[in-house]
């Protein structure tokens, strides 16, 4: 992974295409640095979180690396890159050492210490590089000063600390304004300004909504050159998986539409975003509702012809996957499972839906799985505690995810599982397909209408807080009775 250097709200940019059609010219880019053992270094161009290698050279006897030849480099910011080979794991990583700018001069020398600290970077032959490193050094020093103020004033007069911080902030604001104005024709500073992020006015009441709505202001999402900057990748990554990380699925979809609509019809930029964000929403095991986001992107972009690079086979596969996942999305009606209890008798088949309790916890677990054992024990503790207090408003429909029926039955008996314990081959439908169960443990929570309200495993200790939060967000569910049970329950609890 390339080394990232943060500059305020922006990161160091690289490789902006200028569409230059000038005649090729001689270039000579020299890197001098301490204690480098690499025999070969490369010049790389960023693409998302990877590098496109553009040139290479070997180490000279004096330890320097000189890249030279005849070509016209595209105006932009590049990186010196080394190859990191892990022979034991048989892995190769491309590691960025530091970024540099080509903006005008193609003949220059950069001298750096072993850590590539900006304050120690010396440049001859390139004012653009010199100004860039000077800016980076000043920002770095300001951060260190802010940290020192915080540490020095711990437990002291907060008013004095605030004054120091305010003075530093005012000084840096003036510095940034003057520096960006002075160097406004230089590419690096143009990109710093473009990727600085939105200023949120003090009078705005809902600042988080304003921020995510205006996050992309000033960024031209049809400028193809931005694809070759780490700035665009970092901004995209942070927006979808930082700013929107805790948002619900509908909110993520709404803001995804807002961003992607700005590049509609632009195949190159649309693919840059879609190829990165869509796979991360697919079958996420941790994030609630992210599978819904993936299905939404497939339905509204791939299946509507807005991803023209995708092959017919790829689109068909995504369609099948989306149709499969849709059955287990939050808000979908859960399919009724009818399975035999530990007696394995046909007359002792139990329904997941025909229960008197308002909520049903579908718990798919495996007695051979250590994590399942731990989580099942925790669930038993919560179940028994709430039962003794008369507060248990859910039933646990525990499906033994184990082919060896005797092993499952013995575990249930030995550990006295108080749930509706079902398992074995006598089942009305394929529950793995019906609920997208592809491992254990898996938890699905159904409400009074037997709709899916949770399709990710949560800790047993979070079960009641989740249900309480659900009822706060859906007050109509608070006093709702399980109508499915009223229509279909039998006095014995078994399915007739």
What does this structure look like?
The chain has 496 residues and is of the alpha+beta class. It has 3 domains: 6-180, no CATH class; 204-326; 338-488, Glutaredoxin. Helices cover 38% and strands 20% of the residues. The chain has 14 helices and 17 strands. It has helices at residues 127-152, 158-182, 187-194, 207-214, 230-243, 249-260, 267-281, 290-302, 312-326, 370-389, 405-414, 431-434, 463-473, 483-488, and strands at residues 6-7, 10-11, 26-33, 40-47, 50-58, 65-70, 76-86, 91-102, 107-112, 122-124, 338-340, 349-351, 359-365, 394-400, 420-422, 442-446, 452-454. The strands form 5 sheets. Strands 15-14-13-16-17 form a 5-stranded mixed beta sheet. A 4-stranded mixed beta sheet has the order 6-3-9-10, with helices on one face. It has a 4-stranded antiparallel beta sheet with strand order 5-4-7-8. A hairpin with a 4-residue loop joins strand 7 and strand 8 (91-102). Helix 1 runs antiparallel to helix 2 (158-182) and helix 6 (249-260) runs parallel beside helix 8. Mean pLDDT is 89; it is low at 1-22.
């Amino acid at each position: 992974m390339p080394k990232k250097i943060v500059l305020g709200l922006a990161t160091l940019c690289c490789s902006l295409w200028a569409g230059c059609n000038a005649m090729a010219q001689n270039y000579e880019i020299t890197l001098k640095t301490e204690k480098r053992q690499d025999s070969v270094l490369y010049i790389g161009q960023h693409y998302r979180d990877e590098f496109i290698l553009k040139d290479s050279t070997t180490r000279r006897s004096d330890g320097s690396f000189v890249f030279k030849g005849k070509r016209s480099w595209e105006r932009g910011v590049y990186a010196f890159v080394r190859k990191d080979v892990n022979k034991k794991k048989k892995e190769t990583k491309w590691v960025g050492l530091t970024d540099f700018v080509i903006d005008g001069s193609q003949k220059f020398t950069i001298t750096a210490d072993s850590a590539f600290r900006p304050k120690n970077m010396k440049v001859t032959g390139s004012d653009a590089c010199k100004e860039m490193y000077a800016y980076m050094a000043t920002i770095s020093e300001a951060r260190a000063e802010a940290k020192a103020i915080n540490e020095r004033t711990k437990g002291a007069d907060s008013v004095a600390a605030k004054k120091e911080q305010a003075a530093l902030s005012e000084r840096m604001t003036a510095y940034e304004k003057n520096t960006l104005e002075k160097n406004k024709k230089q590419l690096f500073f143009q990109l710093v300004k473009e990727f600085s992020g939105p200023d949120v006015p003090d009078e705005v009441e809902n600042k988080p909504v304003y921020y995510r709505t205006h996050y992309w202001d000033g960024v031209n999402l049809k400028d193809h050159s931005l694809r070759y900057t780490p700035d665009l990748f970092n901004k995209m990554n942070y927006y979808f998986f930082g700013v929107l990380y805790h948002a619900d699925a509908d909110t993520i979809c709404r803001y995804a539409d807002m961003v992607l609509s700005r590049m509609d019809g632009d195949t190159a930029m649309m693919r840059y975003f879609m190829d990165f964000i869509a796979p991360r929403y697919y079958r996420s095991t941790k994030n609630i509702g992210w599978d819904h986001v993936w299905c939404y992107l497939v339905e509204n972009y791939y299946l509507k012809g807005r991803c023209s690079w995708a092959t017919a086979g790829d689109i068909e596969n995504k369609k099948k996957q989306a149709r499969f996942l849709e059955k287990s999305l939050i808000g979908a009606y859960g399919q009724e499972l009818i399975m035999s209890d530990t007696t394995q008798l046909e007359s002792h088949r139990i329904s997941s839906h025909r229960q008197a309790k308002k909520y049903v916890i579908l718990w798919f677990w495996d007695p051979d799985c250590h994590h399942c054992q731990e989580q099942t024990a925790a669930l038993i503790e919560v179940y028994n505690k709430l039962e003794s207090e008369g507060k248990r408003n859910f039933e646990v429909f525990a499906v033994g995810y184990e082919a060896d029926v005797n092993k499952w039955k013995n575990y249930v008996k030995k550990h006295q599982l108080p749930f509706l314990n079902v398992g074995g081959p006598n089942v009305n439908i394929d529950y793995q397909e019906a609920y997208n169960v592809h491992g254990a443990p898996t938890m699905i929570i159904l409400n009074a209408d037997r709709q899916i309200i949770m399709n990710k495993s949560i800790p047993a200790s979070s079960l009641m807080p989740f249900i309480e939060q659900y009822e706060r967000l859906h007050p109509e569910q608070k006093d709702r009775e399980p109508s499915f049970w009223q229509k279909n329950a039998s006095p014995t609890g078994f399915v007739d």
